[in-house]
Amino acid sequence: xxxxxxxxxxxxxxxxxxxxxxxxxxxxxxxxxxxxxxxxxxxxxxxxxxxxxxxxxxxxxxxxxxxxxxxxxxxxxxxxxxxxxxxxxxxxxxxxxxxxxxxxxxxxxxxxxxxxxxxxxxxxxxxxxxxxxxxxxxxxxxxxxxxxxxxxxxxxxxxxxxxxxxxxxxxxxxxxxxxxxxxxxxxxxxxxxxxxxxxxxxxxxxxxxxxxxxxxxxxxxxxxxxxxxxxxxxxxxxxxxxxxxxxxxxxxxxxxxxxxxxxxxxxxxxxxxxxxxxxxxxxxxxxxxxxxxxxxxxxxx
Length: 301
Hints:
The chain has helices spanning 14-23, 45-51, 70-84, 98-101, 113-126, 144-153, 177-186, 200-209, 220-224, 235-252, 256-270, 278-286, 290-300, and strands at residues 2-5, 29-31, 61-62, 64-65, 88-93, 130-135, 160-162, 191-194, 215-218. It has 301 residues and is an alpha/beta fold. It has a nine-stranded parallel sheet. The longest helix has 18 residues, at 235-252. It is globular.
């Protein structure tokens, strides 16, 4: 079985990835939060810092790109290969956020299969990198999945990561497992499953369910319970993991307030690991003092 760490904007940057690999591990590929090509430049400073090889030593990193313009994808793939040495790039066709989909990007691009086909035709005529995609099964209706399947079969993707929900469903309801299974039975591609893997038991059940699928991408579940894969959920390991992230942010961020903002984002996920400690968690959410924050964290441990 291969395990991939899904990207989550603002959360799974290089500071988080390095700390996770050091204290937990068990991940075969880490996908970066998406790079969105800009009008005047392909990447901003934050995006460049996140994909720098020196910031990701020893990790298999796949930069993810968010765009619906073939030329932008071609240009950024060229830069990622020539300047940074990346041979594999991932295209985001799954993000369900309204700020993304209203621009026809992420899962919003799935509404325009004709444009997608032209997009991939143009890309693969000149591409010299491996391209994988992370996709939903449609945007409005599961009937869209069949057309997307035939579209994807036309192109030489490195692999296809499927979250079997519609874009309009966001993260609600149950994944459409039957659609993923139809893809799995007929496709020429290597498939990876993504969606609602929130425990080691859930991962093992899916691995047993599908003989033809041995790749699984975890995201929200693994962020909330970082020790899930190895059953290593002791407080001492988590404290070291936490402190590594805190020091990583503090090293490059400007001011305690910005560092605390990043840590509080993570606590919106980590709070589930500390039932019965709501009072301390509330203080963590409110504090704007880094020294106080460090003391509050020790109270949790």
